[in-house]
Amino acid sequence: MDGYQLTFYTEQNRRHGHHTVTEWLLHEARQLGIHGATVINCAEGTGHAGTHHAAHMLRLLDQPVQIILAVTQDEAERMLSAVKSAHVHVFYTRSPVEFGLIGDDGHGDARKHFSLFHPRTH
Hints:
By secondary structure, this protein is an alpha+beta fold. Helices cover 20% and strands 33% of the residues.
């Protein structure tokens, strides 16, 4: 499938309302029916204004974070529209990508879930 990779760049401590920007973006993606996201905590980075951000041993608040979504064109437009309308201050990139699933998971259950707290019962 052809679509986009949306990548949002923020810091661990960055907030929007009562939630971190990361939490808000993940919640909004779920609300829009976007089913996958990857959050990557980075060691360090330089922001668009030239400010150095890094995770320190005793203080992780300034740690750079990436939130990555593989989405269709419609999902990308809806997600970016939601971010704009909520006035969330966040840097993003949008790159064209091809994405899809390959192979069989061996279980035949498309609703496969994994939890550390609730063992699967199959």
